[in-house]
Design a protein that fits this description.
- It is a single chain.
- By secondary structure, the chain is α+β, with helices and mostly antiparallel strands.
- Helices cover 55% and strands 20% of the residues.
- The protein has nine helices and eight strands.
- The strands form three sheets. The protein has a three-stranded antiparallel sheet with strand order 3-2-5. Strands 6-7-8 form a three-stranded antiparallel sheet.
- The radius of gyration is 63 Å and the shape is rod-shaped.
- The N and C termini lie far apart (213 Å).
Length: 328
């Protein structure tokens, strides 16, 4: 009885193993290679698949999604005999699982070696400066060669990127000095342009300021002259409108005489010749009121040739001398 149970248990286990080997579930974006007695039979796609247990076997499961593979830095010699280290990144995708399994032993290693050799051929025809400035050109050339070579392997190279290009240390120092000199040169040029522009703007501002100041002074002088002319015209019209006589004018003239001597710096002042006419008019006006208190006063007949007055005592002495007879 126990032996029967053992046999049944073995049969159940075998059936379970057969079912597991018969039913194959392939994830999405994946494929599996099926071999029968070591020979390729078919490719299992995503989903539930049935295979013959103990006859069919799964050789390889391949991811059909796009893969990213970075390669370590590779030394490459440029056309001007400089060694640069270049890091590359490859974006590829398996399009044929059967070819990727049977056409090449290791497509990752094959792509890496092909990338290195192709990169050396491309960089060998360029100098360092062109290498540093022609990444897009290098990427396009490298991708074209890789895509053509890997097509028979069931692989499509979608993109190739140069991650880094590192020239020798001495070249980096020289390039850094050159870039620093270029930046200093551009800074000096920009500073000189700024100073020049500032001087031009300052000169233009001073020019405009001088022009505006001169125009303002000219207008102010014109307005001042016009105001003075208007004042003189108003005074003249007021005098004529008031019909001022000679007596009033003479009195006003004499009132202005003390102002001529005002100030400590005035050492000499000149009496105008018109003062005689003013005094004549004023003395004539005061003569109409009679002599002033104390017997002194102005007399029109006592004025000198220059308009000054002669005292009465001096007139009396002169008259006495004329009346005395001559001495024999």
């Amino acid at each position: 009885m126990s032996s029967i149970i053992i046999v049944l248990i073995i049969l159940v286990v075998l059936v379970f193993i057969a079912l597991v080997k018969t039913i194959q579930v392939i994830p999405q974006a994946s494929a599996a290679i099926v071999e029968r007695f070591g020979r390729y039979t078919r490719t299992l796609n995503a989903g539930l698949n049935i295979v013959v247990p103990f006859i069919d076997s799964i050789r390889n499961r391949i991811d059909l999604r796009e893969q990213v593979v970075p390669f370590p830095p590779q030394p490459v010699i440029t056309q001007d005999n400089l060694v640069v280290n270049i890091d590359t990144v490859i974006y590829y995708q398996v399009t044929d699982a059967r070819a990727a399994t049977y056409e090449v032993a290791s497509y990752i290693q094959a792509i890496e070696q092909l990338t290195v050799t192709t990169l050396r051929n491309i960089i060998g025809g360029m100098d360092l400066e062109r290498t540093l400035t022609s990444r897009e050109e290098i990427n396009a050339a490298l991708r074209g060669v890789l895509d053509e070579a890997t097509g028979k392997w069931g692989i499509r190279v979608n993109r190739v990127e140069l991650k880094a290009i590192e020239p020798p240390t001495s070249i980096q120092d020289s390039m850094e000095k050159q870039m620093r000199a270029d930046r200093d040169k551009r800074a000096s040029i920009l500073q000189a342009e700024g100073v020049r522009q500032s001087e031009i703007l300052r000169a233009e501002g001073e020019k405009q300021s001088s022009i505006l100041r001169a125009e303002g002074e000219a207008k102010a002088a014109a307005l001042r002259a016009e105001g003075e002319a208007q004042a003189i015209r108003t005074v003249f019209e007021s005098i004529h409108a008031g019909d001022a006589d000679q007596k009033l004018l003479a009195y006003q003239y004499l009132q202005m005489l003390p102002k001529l001597a005002e100030g400590d710096a005035n050492k000499l002042w000149i009496v105008p010749s018109e003062i005689g006419d003013a005094l004549k008019g004023l003395s004539g006006a005061m003569g109409n009121f009679g002599p002033m208190a104390g017997g002194s006063g102005f007399n029109p007949q006592n004025t000198g040739k220059d308009g000054g007055t002669i005292p009465a005592a001096r007139d009396k002495d002169a008259a006495d001398r004329r009346e005395q007879p001559p001495i024999d």
